[in-house]
Amino acid sequence: MSTGNQPKHVYNVYTVMLIASALFMLVACVMMGMEWARS
Questions:
Q1: pTM to 2 decimals?
Q2: Among positive and negative, which fits the CA dihedral 33, 35, 36, 37?
Q3: Which of 21, 29, 35, 37 has a 20 to 30 Å separation from 11 between CA atoms?
Q4: Is residue 27 part of a domain?
Q5: Do the domain assignments include residue 31?
Q6: Transmembrane residues, as ranges (predicted)?
């Protein structure tokens, strides 16, 4: 972790984490839906 007070960098990290978690949830929902439809 770099010690620097740039709020833009912090917002960028939070945005990347938010997008990553949203994509993970979307992929998990799609995979669960495919498993559910197959059964």
A1: 0.59
A2: positive
A3: 29
A4: yes
A5: yes
A6: 12-34
